[in-house]
Amino acid sequence: MTRILLTGADGMLAHDLRARFAGRPVTALGRASLDITDTEACRAAVRGHDVVLNTAAWTAVDAAEDEPEAAGRVNALGAENLARACADTGAVLVQYSTDYVFGDTPPTGAGTPWPEEAPLRPISVYGRTKAEGERRARAAHPDGVIVMRTAWLYGAHGRSFVTAIRDRAALGEPFTVVDDQWGQPTWTREVADGTAAILDRGVRSGIVHATASGSTTWFGFARTILATAGLDPELVRPAATVPGERPAPRPRWSVLGHDGWARLGLAPLRDWQSAFADAAAEIGWASAPPSPTDGP
After folding, report:
1. 96 is catalytic
2. Cross-strand partners of 193
3. Listed GO molecular functions (predicted)?
4. Where do the domains of the chain lie?
5. Strand order in the sheet with 4-7
6. What are the E-state strand segments in the chain?
7. What is the pLDDT of residues 77-110, one digit of tens each?
8. Cα–Cα dist 62/124, whole Å
9. N- or C-end of the chain: fewer Cβ atoms within 10 A?
């Protein structure tokens, strides 16, 4: 039976990966148990496993602008350490990456999805460190690294855009959300299922975009969140991105293509709207959040 090492085990995606692989031997290590910037610790942790699912990452996008070396140690050096350890034992590394490795305009033209093979042109420190992590991991273990780029994640175990919007809506006052950044809201459960499908197919290397099909803006997603909860979508108003408002620039166009799945003989993740409807029903987001004035 496949023996799995899961890094970053305290994160939102990691929780769903643990649930998806519950019937298999899984060693789940959080940051306190495994520092992926430690080469020898990685070698010791990987030993005895067939697959490594690396969800450990520096994800504080704005903080990375001020701490590029710290972000790089986790996102680039950490990925390389795990890949080298996997190369030593013949294990497969699934390296979870991000839409931030791209810029604003795909090589296929504005308004078209980013293909898996598009040149990496990140516009933020976070994006550069994740792109470097992809490069180093694949160079260290060319035949044993699967890069899964995902984005706009939400799930039951952790803070996300969904929980932020629900909290804001509970105040009952209008608020604004940007309507000029496009992407694909993606349920962590779907990413976990896609990971299992790839591994069960026997894939050992390649790049896939593990994002939901379809696309929307943050504003469009916010309206869906409110409507699903039975709240007034008019509470949220559209706004334009203000350059320089946040330390790290955000990609305006993060719609990723899914041709990589077809090349593996697999179906991509389903459309974001149906996935979110199921997630909301299961997690409990299909009802309005309590207002701050509600009692126990």
Report:
1. no
2. none
3. dTDP-4-dehydrorhamnose reductase activity
4. 4-152+186-213+255-269
5. 26-29, 4-7, 51-54, 92-98, 145-150, 206-209
6. 4-7, 26-29, 51-54, 92-98, 145-150, 153-154, 175-178, 182-183, 186-187, 206-209, 216-217, 236-239
7. 999 999 999 999 999 999 999 999 998 889 888 8
8. 9
9. C
Q: Which residue has the tokens 């799945």?
A: 261
Residue 112 CA to residue 46 CA, distance in Å, equals: 39
The identity of residue 268, as a single letter, is P
Q: Are 87 and 80 a contacting pair, CB within 8 Å?
A: no
Task: Indicate the residue type of 55.
Answer: T
Is residue 280 within 8 A of residue 286, CB to CB? The reply is yes
Choose the CATH number for 4-152+186-213+255-269 among 3.30.1250.10, 3.30.450.40, 3.40.50.720, 2.60.40.1930: 3.40.50.720
List the catalytic residue out of 96, 100, 126, 154.
Answer: 126
Eight-class DSSP state of 75: I
CA 41 vs CA 35, 46, 76, 121: distances in Å: 7, 9, 16, 31
CA-angle at 123, arms to 122 and 126, nearest 5°: 75
Give the pair of three-digit tokens for residue 238.
């559209």
Residue 294's pLDDT band, with cuts at 50, 70 and 90, is low
Per residue in 195-243, pLDDT tens? 999 999 999 999 999 999 999 999 999 999 999 999 999 999 999 999 8
**pTM metric for this prediction:** 0.96
Select from 51, 152, 34, 151 the least CA-distant residue to 93. 51
What are the tens digits of pLDDT across the range 125-178?
999 999 999 999 999 999 999 999 999 999 999 999 999 999 999 999 999 999
